[in-house]
Amino acid sequence: MDLVHAQALPLIGMKSSAHVYQTALWIYLTAIPLSVVMRIIGVRWFYSALDLLALSFFYTAMRKSFGTRAALLGAWLYAVHPWILEYNRWIWNPGLLVTAAAVTFSAFLMAMGPPSAARDRWIVIITVGAAVVAGLHIIAFPWMLGVWSLAAFIALKSHRWRGLFLGILISVAIHLPYLIYLLGPGLQDLHGLLSMARDGEKQLPLAMSLTMNLIFVRGMLQPEPYAIWRDSVVSAPLLDVIMPAVLLIAVITGLCEIVQRTQHAQHWALMFAWTLVPPIPVWLSSIHPQYYYMLHMFPAPIAAVSTALLGRECPITRWGNIVRFLRWILLAGCLALSIWWVYIWAVRIRLEDQRQLIVATPAWAIEKISSITAEYLRQNPNGVVVILEDSGLDLSAYDVIRAFVRSDRVRVVPARAGIIVPHAPGCYILTPGIPDDELRLAPLVDLRPMPPPIPGAPSWRMFCWASPPRTSQAKAEWVNGLRLLDARTEGDPWSSDLITVIHQWEYVGQPIRGQLYLFFNHLMSGDRLIAQADGPGIHSFRWRTGDQIITRFRIPLPPERNATDYTLWVGLYELDGPRIPMTNGQDRYMIASWKR
Predict the structure, then answer these.
(1) Which helix (H) or strand (E) holds 502?
(2) How far apart are CA 450 and CA 214, in angstroms?
(3) How far apart, in whole angstroms, are the C-alpha atoms of residue 493 and residue 337?
(4) Coil, helix or strand for 566?
């Protein structure tokens, strides 16, 4: 949003699951529709338009390379492919990965055609498209270098270096902000990622399983959140063998083309490499594998299947009537499978419309909550809105609401770990999955329930309070401005399996500028540490001056414990830094004791 309002040019994007910052390319692309209309639906339309253009380009490239019938089948399979549909719906980096990969792959097919003056254009699209894929997810950088090498080979054979140099120049310009970041702290982060990927425990079985699911188009219905989707569709176990059988025919066909060095041998080598190379970094690293790490293998498997079944001058057509009959049987099965894909997605969309299947941070919900929040803030100039969510991420998709309404009076707080009570009147909005019991952590204000913020969606709830929270005398104070007002415990060290600690803090310090504070809770027996629970509670970058912050920690206790006296101490420290001292010079405060 800072980019849309010409307030800042971000050098980096969000952190990956491996805790390394991505490039800001996704932010730049998303800013384009937002600069026209400040609506999430505008972003969705923009993504869809880009994907439609990619599909059109893919069809054109397939038609010129393998004929109209193969192109029609390829375009159809691309349009209804469950994994492509799943990730193209995301308003996030993976939402454009397949789109960019499809454009790059299609440009390769065009560049491998008869020599022409347009080859420079295709080489530019290849190099820039590969850079865009790498910009959308950093794990594709090695793949990008491989694509550039192939583009350089085509340029060498055709003596067309201008397109290659222009494409690389544009690619460097695209990644220039990230290169600037790498010259600073980013190089250390990248080195940490490479060390972790090299030295950690490999997860090859899981990575291979995810790869096979993408290639064979299976596993879509397996995740537990989709249980209602799985139970609502008619299963078709006979169709499970269609895609492996068709891919087997494609492999045999491609190998025959390559061995016989036909005119399509290079096309088949490209399709095989395009499918198999993207998963290799995931197979070889210890980073926890995700499906979207390998999405740029598409649309090569689709092209291979379409070409094997309907491609012109396919060697399989010369293998006799029985083989040709088998090919038509597999084509019918492939079409039946694609119709089943359409069917299961129609069921899913119906379940989402009926609110039986909750989509994480759906665009329509963010639109609605943004409108409600903006109206509340307009009517209450001193009020705040706190959105409780449960994504489990440091940053939430709901953080975009603050940017949409352009107000710091919108707060997003991860539930389960605690709650924030701002020093102002305001409202809590509970996202689906957050129980009302979470508000029991905020007894400092008198909450009154409001009508559901989204009519027809009772899983969204809203509670408001009219006066700032009550405060009390501090029991302890730290030099960074954090004050402990109260603490209570549930359980005891002798008979419980865990002790739950709930702290009530007040922050009166300066605005947080990058510091990450972690709390520690130490159960001691004399000078011996028995058990502990450390963590950020509510991340300190979400604190504001005057906030009361309720944190909750659960301390698991060891099975063997002595019948002796115990004490419980609390304190905080910076990440990779020393403990924060208290104003009395100590670095911890005793909040409970148990005597035998």
Answers:
(1) strand 498-507
(2) 45
(3) 58
(4) strand
Query: For residue 419, what are the β-bridge partners?
Result: 550
Q: Are 146 and 277 in contact (CB under 8 A)?
A: yes
| Residue among 113, 124, 181, 173 at smallest CA distance from 147 | 124
Are the CB atoms for 502 and 552 separated by under 8 Å?
yes
**Residue-level pLDDT at 274:** 96
**Sorting pLDDT into bands at 50, 70 and 90, what band is 239?**
confident
Which of 204-213, 236-245, 347-356 is the least confident region?
347-356
What kind and span of H or E run contains 523? strand 517-525
pTM of the model: 0.76
CA 440 and chain centroid, separation: 31
Q: Which pLDDT belongs to residue 17?
A: 59
Judge whether 174 and 252 are in contact, CB under 8 Å. Answer: no
Q: CA nearest 220: which of 205, 239, 202, 246? A: 239
Q: Check: CB of residue 112 under 8 Å from CB of residue 270.
A: yes
Burial of 417 (0-12, 13-18, 19+ CB in 10 A): middle
Given a contact cutoff of 8 angstroms between Cβ atoms, the answer to whether 592 and 503 are in contact is no
- Within the chain, what is the greatest distance between any pair of CA atoms? 91
**DSSP-assigned letters across all residues of 140-201:** GHHHHHHHHHHHHHHHHHHT-HHHHHHHHHHHHHHHHHHHHHIIIIIHHHHHHHHHHHHHS-
- Residue 238 or 304, more confident: 304
Q: Identify the H or E element spanning 329.
A: helix 321-353
Cβ neighbors of 101 (< 8 A, separation 6 or more) are 129, 133, 295, 296, 297, 298, 299
Q: Is the pLDDT of residue 10 over 90?
A: no
Report the helix count and the strand count for the chain, using DSSP H and E: 18, 16
pLDDT of residue 312: 67
User: Rg of the chain's alpha carbons, rounded to an integer?
Assistant: 28
| Cα 446 to Cα 426, 440, 463, 466, distances in angstroms | 11, 11, 10, 8
pLDDT digits (tens, 9 = 90+) for 27-60: 888 888 888 887 778 888 899 999 999 999 999 9
Q: Is 448 exposed, middle or buried (0-12, 13-18, 19+ CB in 10 A)?
A: exposed
291: left (phi over 0), alpha (psi -120 to 50) or beta: alpha
